[in-house]
């Protein structure tokens, strides 16, 4: 009960505390004389008395005499302890003399402020509750106080109601209905927030906030106990932890523990996800004169709306800060919000912070169950969910799946709604979407310059929203911001796309320049060598008398040099056609093993210094491919193996069936390729910077191999280690695939 009085006296306590510091300053001043002391005591609105170092009362004002129920003659000359001999603490227990304000100020030499004591009024033969402060006066050079000024304010009018409550705890069924009605009037008009319990946890009076939380009327509450309520409801602390009955604030209070501003959430046990009622509870036990707990009084304040508003404000503030931070930060992505619309309705792999923050605004402020920002593909009129946010993850997934690939017509449910929508008019919350069961959903257009960009969807489920003008303005504002973001993302995507294309063009240009440089070098060398040989052999034929055998020999040399030039030109033209997709494949059925045998037979006639080993699968399936182009692949790989293999080295060709592909490998015993060069061997005009000095080539053969295999839908790669030879692999799909 006393703790409740402390809560009730707030404004008076503030007034008292405002006076005490100024009085302290005046009392401690060296010029503060007895005349000043008497003037101060006599003119105080509060009760005031002044005592000496022995505790004898020297001065007292009329307010103090009234509160203590004594005359001036009775009081003067007594000690400050005498009239307070029956003093009680706030909890109803006796307060000894040494613990009273004047005695403490005298002992400690410093002020004692705002102590609540119950003082027995001799005239009224009842207790008055006084809020007391005691201020010592210490003269210059003295060690102890010479005067103690005690001030007190009367809180009995506020305590009267609590005394009444104390008697209410002791009411019996035989008491008159008039008395019960009298207490009901007091409770209903003054203390709608007060609950009263007896020591066994029976409810004598249930506050209005708890009636709402427990869904009980005042009459029904009188038939309940805390034990019976614990079977129907659960209490949670501010962190969401469920409290056992022994941890409920009421039970703690009835064990003698003072409860101060404990916030609990109350929800029924039989509802899976009810909205809890948030209650702030303060209370303390009531003791009788012997100090035995005879009940408890608790003040309960419903803070559900306040907590909800706080959470909404926090979410909205967080969303605004996140969105503002993201908007002033240079975007790192390449238009993730818009890029997906080119592929009809592809799901977004990630959300940008700006769009997420924008969707959190209505989610936090409008108390809705789901918010979605949908993008519209203008050609197909299909929707793609850019952002779907909901406090419930299962509801968020449900809406995302439902909106994925939905048409604007299916969402809005009719041509009239679409017409109004294109005019920028939001649909009413009761509009049925998806031809669905009636529920409350609000749909607003995301448009810019009379052009529909998307849809803002706000779902309330079965709960009808009560939207104010400010709410409508918020929804339209979010839709306009979404339109700006869509436009920004579109511009960002187009800019990034242009930058990427420019970078690709620069890379291609650099590669082209490098290839041209290599081409000029190779062509100059190859053409110069061949033309020099042709010119030299021609001059020999022209100037010298040669026999037929010598003429044939020089003619053969001229022919080989001419063939080398023709081969160079053909390779360059083939590679250009391959890379420009101008070459055509002449597909037909073919036996790859037979093709391998033919290619090896050709190469055997070209070299007598190498041996060829064939390890061919016995039953390869027939392939669908270009025989001439695949022969070029084999000839180029075998030619490459011959060039880099030492005299007498073996070249091995293997064919085997792997799953639905034919795997061919050509291995040599040459110098091998270092790891850093492996990824470059198939590049155009690439020649290894090592190997036999006599190796001829233009760096085109392996590039042609790669392009032909890729045209057939196959794969090509190389395995090698320097000094251990190389193995070139390629795969081709069988006809069944």
Count the E strands: 23
CATH superfamily of the largest domain: GAF domain
Uncertain runs: 1-20, 171-176, 333-351
- Judged by helices, strands and strand pairing, the structural class is alpha+beta
Radius of gyration over alpha carbons? 49 Å
Physical arrangement of strands within the biggest beta sheet: 7-6-12-11-10-8-9
What is the architecture of the largest domain at the second tier of CATH? 2-Layer Sandwich
CATH topology of the largest domain: Beta-Lactamase
DSSP strand (E) fraction? 15-25%
Helicity, as a percent range: 40-55%
- SS summary, helix count: 23
- Our measurement of the CA-to-CA distance between the termini, rounded to an integer number of angstroms, reads 89 Å
Strand and helix map with partners:
Layout: H1 2-8, H2 10-28, H3 34-43, E1 47-52, E2 57-60, H4 62-68, H5 72-75, H6 101-108, E3 112-121, E4 126-137, E5 147-154, H7 156-169, H8 177-190, E6 194-197, E7 203-205, H9 208-214, H10 218-221, H11 226-230, E8 233-236, E9 242-243, H12 249-254, E10 259-268, E11 277-287, E12 293-302, H13 304-328, H14 336-339, H15 353-365, E13 370-376, E14 383-389, H16 393-403, H17 408-412, H18 415-422, E15 440-448, E16 451-461, H19 469-543, H20 548-579, E17 587-590, H21 592-606, E18 611-616, E19 623-626, H22 627-644, E20 650-658, E21 661-667, H23 701-711, E22 715-720, E23 726-733
Parallel strand pairs: 18-20
Antiparallel strand pairs: 1-2, 1-5, 3-4, 4-5, 6-7, 6-12, 8-9, 8-10, 10-11, 11-12, 13-14, 13-16, 15-16, 17-19, 20-21, 21-23, 22-23
Helix pairs in contact: 13-15, 15-19, 19-20, 20-23, 21-22, 22-23
């Amino acid at each position: 009960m006393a703790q409740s009085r402390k809560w009730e006296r707030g404004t008076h306590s503030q007034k008292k505390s405002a006076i005490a510091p100024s009085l302290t300053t005046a009392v401690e001043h060296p010029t503060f004389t007895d005349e000043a002391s008497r003037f101060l005591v006599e003119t105080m609105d509060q009760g005031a008395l002044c005592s000496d170092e022995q505790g004898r009362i020297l001065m007292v004002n009329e307010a103090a005499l009234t509160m203590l129920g004594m005359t001036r003659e009775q009081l003067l000359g007594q000690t400050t302890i005498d009239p307070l001999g029956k003093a009680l603490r706030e909890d109803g227990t006796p307060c000894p003399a040494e613990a009273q304000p004047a005695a403490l100020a005298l002992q400690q030499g410093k002020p004692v402020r705002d102590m609540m004591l119950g003082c027995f009024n001799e005239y009224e033969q009842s207790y008055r509750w006084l809020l007391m402060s005691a201020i010592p006066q210490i003269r210059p050079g003295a060690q102890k106080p010479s005067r103690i000024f005690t001030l007190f304010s009367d809180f009995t009018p506020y305590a009267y109601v609590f005394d009444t409550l104390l008697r209410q705890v002791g009411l019996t069924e035989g008491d008159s209905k008039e008395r019960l009605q009298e207490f009901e009037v007091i409770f209903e008009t003054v203390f709608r927030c007060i609950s009263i319990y007896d020591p066994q946890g029976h409810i004598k009076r249930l506050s209005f906030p708890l009636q709402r939380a427990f869904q009980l009327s005042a009459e029904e509450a009188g038939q309940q106990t805390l034990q019976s309520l614990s079977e129907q409801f659960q209490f949670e602390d501010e962190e969401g932890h469920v409290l056992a009955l022994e941890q409920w604030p009421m039970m703690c209070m009835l064990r003698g523990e003072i409860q101060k501003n404990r916030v609990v959430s109350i929800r029924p046990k039989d509802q899976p996800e009810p909205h809890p009622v948030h209650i702030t509870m303060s209370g303390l036990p009531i003791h009788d004169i012997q100090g035995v707990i005879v009940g408890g009084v608790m003040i309960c304040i419903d803070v559900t709306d306040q907590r909800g508003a706080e959470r909404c404000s926090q979410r909205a503030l967080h969303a605004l800060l996140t969105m503002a931070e993201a908007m002033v930060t240079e975007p790192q992505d390449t238009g993730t919000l818009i890029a997906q619309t080119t592929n009809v309705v592809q799901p977004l792999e990630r959300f940008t912070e700006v769009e997420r923050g924008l969707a959190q605004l209505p989610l936090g402020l409008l108390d809705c169950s789901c918010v979605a920002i949908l993008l519209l593909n203008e050609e197909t009129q299909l929707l793609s969910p850019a952002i779907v946010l909901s406090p419930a993850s299962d509801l968020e997934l449900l809406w995302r799946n439902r909106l994925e690939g939905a048409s604007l017509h299916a969402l809005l449910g009719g041509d009239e709604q679409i017409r109004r929508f294109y005019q920028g008019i939001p649909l009413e919350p009761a509009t049925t979407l998806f031809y669905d069961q009636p529920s409350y959903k609000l749909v607003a257009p995301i448009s810019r310059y009379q052009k529909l960009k998307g849809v803002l969807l706000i779902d309330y489920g079965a709960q009808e929203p009560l939207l104010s003008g400010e709410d409508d303005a918020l929804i339209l504002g979010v839709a306009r911001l979404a339109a700006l973001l869509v436009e920004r993302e579109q511009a960002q995507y187009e800019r990034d796309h242009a930058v990427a294309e420019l970078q690709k063009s620069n890379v291609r240009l650099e590669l082209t320049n490098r290839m041209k440089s290599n081409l000029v070098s190779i062509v100059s060398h190859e053409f110069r060598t061949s033309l020099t040989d042709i010119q030299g052999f021609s001059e020999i034929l022209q100037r010298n008398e040669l026999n037929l055998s010598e003429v044939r020999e020089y003619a053969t040399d001229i022919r080989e040099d001419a063939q080398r030039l023709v081969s160079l030109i053909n390779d360059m033209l083939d590679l250009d056609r391959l890379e420009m997709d101008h070459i055509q494949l002449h597909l037909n059925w073919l036996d790859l093993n037979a093709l391998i045998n033919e290619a090896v037979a050709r190469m055997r006639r070209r070299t007598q210094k190498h041996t060829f080993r064939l390890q061919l699968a016995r039953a390869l399936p027939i392939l669908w491919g270009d025989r001439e182009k695949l022969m070029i692949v084999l000839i180029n790989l075998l030619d490459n193996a011959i060039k880099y293999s030492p005299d007498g080295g073996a070249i091995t060709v293997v064919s085997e069936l792997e799953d639905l592909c034919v795997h061919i490998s050509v291995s040599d015993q040459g110098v091998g390729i270092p790891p850093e060069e492996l990824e470059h061997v198939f590049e155009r005009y690439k020649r290894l910077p090592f190997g036999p000095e006599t190796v001829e080539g233009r760096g085109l053969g392996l590039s042609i191999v790669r392009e032909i295999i890729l045209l057939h839908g196959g794969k090509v790669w190389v395995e090698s280690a320097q000094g251990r030879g190389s193995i070139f692999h390629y795969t081709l799909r069988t006809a069944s695939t």
